[in-house]
Specification:
This protein is α/β, with parallel strands linked by helices. Helices cover 46% and strands 14% of the residues. It binds adenosine-5'-triphosphate and magnesium ion (MG).
Length: 301
């Protein structure tokens, strides 16, 4: 049966009615990187799948509204996205979609150049929607945009935990340090933990982590933990081509084993987080208000 476009538009509304808020005390973990292409989406996809398989209702929130592709790695095709929300066409809850992998996805979509281009009203549409989604989710996995844009620092920096991904590439390492520095200067309080992706060996991964974290210790006085590494593995590119998380398409690969181990480590750190500090949407709101330029003093006439 072929659905006409009106009926396709109506489907998300049905899901919205099924998405029962249960006032859960969820946690949010964000995946970030200084340089693009380090493997954030690969890690976010595997992490979300692992959490969902553990019985946690898990939402992947693609915080890249310019060239978001997190939905692809969960086997979803293009459809409604956050870009439609900021265009005022639908609400965020209407964009939430169940994926064949068991997770729910909020696709980022494409065409929104950055947070700076959103009006305060458009930003509120997203934050209000996230507050609603959060009530029904045990875990939100934010697939963050690369770099230190306002958008990355907001949606990543207000999570319960930031997983910063670098590769052994010198430019990725330099950009990872810059990410840590800017997030600290901008007072993003989400604790950071480092993952090294595409390492040729455990020794190489440890050396990369020590370089990045050693500089952060010396120059910023920060003691950031090294969570672990994912080896360079052809199974990763194959899993992307198959539009599935690595542990789904290549469960016996070295990368899958490493990703699942990392997911368990991330989850144990999330469980340690005290949820009394308010939810993700509440912290996002606080960051937005804190970042807003002070209203100019009215000039006397
Ligand atoms: N461990 C790995 N081994 C081999 N190839 C990898 C590995 N991790 C990632 N890749 C390759 O790198 C590509 C980019 O990964 P991914 O899309 O997760 O990066 P990203 O950080 O999300 O990029 P962007 O910044 O554009 O969002 C993958 O499609 C895959 O081909
Ligand atoms: Mg990505």
């Amino acid at each position: 049966m072929k659905l006409d476009s009106d009926r396709i538009e109506a489907l998300p509304g049905l899901l919205r009615r099924l998405w029962k808020p249960v006032q859960r005390l969820g946690r949010t973990v964000a995946v970030a990187s200084g340089k693009g292409g380090t493997g954030k989406s690969v890690l976010a996809a595997a992490l979300a799948h692992r959490l969902s398989r553990a019985g946690l209702r898990t939402v992947v929130f693609d915080a890249d509204f310019g060239v978001g592709n997190a939905h692809i790695l969960q086997g979803l095709s293009a459809g409604l996205s956050v870009a439609h929300v900021v265009a005022g066409r639908v609400e965020l809850e209407d964009v939430l979609r169940p994926a064949p992998t068991g997770v729910f996805v909020i696709p980022g979509g494409s065409g929104v150049p950055g947070l700076g281009t959103l009006s305060p009203f458009q930003l509120q549409l997203v934050l209000r929607g996230l507050a609603g989604v959060e009530k029904g989710a045990d875990r939100i996995v934010v697939d963050g945009p690369a770099g230190v844009s306002d958008q990355a620092l907001l949606f990543v920096g207000c999570s319960d935990l930031t997983v910063l991904v670098t590769t052994p590439d010198i430019t990725a390492m330099t950009d990872a340090y810059s990410w840590i520095k800017v997030a600290t200067v901008r007072r993003r309080e989400s604790p950071i933990a480092l993952v090294v992706n595409r390492a040729r060996s455990e020794a190489q991964a440890s050396a990369v982590a020590e370089k990045v974290l050693g500089v952060a210790r010396r120059f910023l006085g920060l003691d950031i933990p090294f969570l672990g590494f994912v080896p360079e593995d052809p199974a990763v590119a194959e899993s992307v081509a198959r539009r599935r998380p690595v542990p789904v398409s290549h469960p016996d690969s070295p990368a899958a084993a490493a990703l699942e181990k990392l997911a368990d480590e991330i989850e144990s750190r999330l469980e340690e987080r005290d949820p009394s500090g308010g939810g993700y949407a509440q912290r996002l709101q606080a960051c937005v208000e804190r970042d807003a330029p002070a209203p100019r003093e009215r000039e006397s006439v």
